[in-house]
Automatic annotation (TrEMBL), chains A, B:
Catalysed conversion reaction: 2-[(2R,5Z)-2-carboxy-4-methylthiazol-5(2H)-ylidene]ethyl phosphate + 4-amino-2-methyl-5-(diphosphooxymethyl)pyrimidine + 2 H(+) = thiamine phosphate + CO2 + diphosphate; 4-methyl-5-(2-phosphooxyethyl)-thiazole + 4-amino-2-methyl-5-(diphosphooxymethyl)pyrimidine + H(+) = thiamine phosphate + diphosphate; 2-(2-carboxy-4-methylthiazol-5-yl)ethyl phosphate + 4-amino-2-methyl-5-(diphosphooxymethyl)pyrimidine + 2 H(+) = thiamine phosphate + CO2 + diphosphate
Keywords of the record: Magnesium, Metal-binding, Thiamine biosynthesis, Transferase
Residues that, per the record, bind 2-[(2R,5Z)-2-carboxy-4-methylthiazol-5(2H)-ylidene]ethyl phosphate: T139, S140, S141, G170, I190, S191
Encoding gene per record: thiE
Gene3D superfamilies: Aldolase class I
Ranges where the Thiamine phosphate synthase/TenI domain occurs: 12-193
Protein purpose: Condenses 4-methyl-5-(beta-hydroxyethyl)thiazole monophosphate (THZ-P) and 2-methyl-4-amino-5-hydroxymethyl pyrimidine pyrophosphate (HMP-PP) to form thiamine monophosphate (TMP).
Binding locations of 4-amino-2-methyl-5-(diphosphooxymethyl)pyrimidine: Q42, L43, R44, E45, K46, N74, S113, K142
A molecular function GO annotation: thiamine-phosphate diphosphorylase activity
InterPro entries: Aldolase_TIM (IPR013785), ThiamineP_synth_sf (IPR036206), ThiamineP_synth_TenI (IPR022998), TMP_synthase (IPR034291)
UniProt protein name: Thiamine-phosphate synthase
SUPFAM superfamilies: Thiamin phosphate synthase (SSF51391)
Domain of life the protein comes from: Bacteria
Length: 213, 213
């Protein structure tokens, strides 16, 4: 995965679970979002039985392949391996990036959440392919997301390490501009797409606001 | 792993987390329990950061090797792989046994929890090396353990599949006899050892009551 490739792929990064949202199944939702221009997709499911995660995850992976969009799994490296995912995204409490890399192999994408300069530095040292930086704004999608940190860390990371980074936390088409201008390569969203009445259009509008920023 | 070996190894099976219990560190506790005669050890930690699980897990694995006792990891196949564990134990909501086998390889132990004949049948079909059958008695160690089922399922499993099985749930030296007489190869315990004032003696007494049943 070259640095240039991954920066483009981070533009509009959809993080989603497998519970139906607004009556839409995860496969329907992902299909709509990918058609709208989502450039990377992460499966983040903490509650459902893993048999179901593996079954539906396989469908999402196939959809992503069809759209030539990387498919990542949150936290569970074992699930990522079984789904032949393109990578794994780990938080600060998950398997450290160096070990995730060891299991996944050199060709896969390893993303790491960072909310402080120290966490960013460690992730860079551990060989993360990109950082998920946040929470930028206040968010209701993730109970343990921590306090909003604004865009300062994005600029700092850009300046100090210039590692690919995607901003996450409360981002919408209306407030995506400042995070891109601060140095993020893209935005990661949950509800801005999953809770939209038209996920395809929501993805398209987000992409537009990222591209024009 | 031959069937005869694993039946012996199931005799006194300690399931433990990594939080200190009664002021004892997990490594101290495991050391005492292994000296007292524990024959298999499972690391089951759901709350701590995985960096810590990997670090302390490595110490537990080394201890188990020194005592020539199999070391298993609960649920997380990725953690089991990173710790080079001897196997993995999966519950009904975890990665299905066939997939756990696929990741772990043929030489490793795959244990599966079963609380009904249907779950036992599926686990046998999936190639489980042993079943963890329960909860036998009422237990306070595991919030999601379900209702106590008594020993009838043990007898049924013994008769229908004769697969190695360890009984779990509320088992102590005082009530271990009936589960062995019903056909279990051993007993899995958490608090009977971890909450004992003398874990070494608790393990020794449990072993005696299993052996004499």
């Amino acid at each position: 995965m070259s640095g240039a490739d991954i920066r483009k792929q981070l533009a509009v990064y959809l993080v989603m679970g497998l519970e139906p949202v607004l009556g839409r199944s995860p496969v329907e939702l992902a299909g709509e979002a990918l058609s709208g221009g989502v450039t990377m997709l992460q499966l983040r499911e903490k509650n459902l039985p893993l048999s179901e995660v593996l079954e539906t995850g396989r469908e999402l992976r196939e959809l992503c392949r069809k759209h030539e969009v990387p498919f990542l799994v949150n936290d569970r490296v074992d699930v990522a391996l079984l789904l032949d995912a393109d990578g794994v995204h780990v938080g600060q409490e998950d398997i450290p990036a160096v070990y995730a890399r060891k299991l996944m192999g050199p060709g896969k994408i390893i993303g790491v959440s960072a909310g402080t300069p120290e966490e960013a530095e460690q992730a860079v040292r551990d060989g993360a392919d990109y950082l998920g930086v946040g929470s930028i704004y206040a968010t209701s999608s993730k109970a343990d997301a921590g306090e909003a940190i604004g865009t300062a860390l994005i600029s700092e990371i850009k300046e100090r390490w210039n590692v690919p980074q995607v901003a996450i936390g409360g981002i919408t088409a209306a407030n995506a501009g400042p995070v891109i201008q601060a140095g993020a390569d893209g935005v990661a969203v949950i509800s801005a797409i999953t809770r939209s009445t038209d996920p395809r259009e929501a993805a398209a509008i987000l992409k537009k606001s990222v591209m024009s920023a």
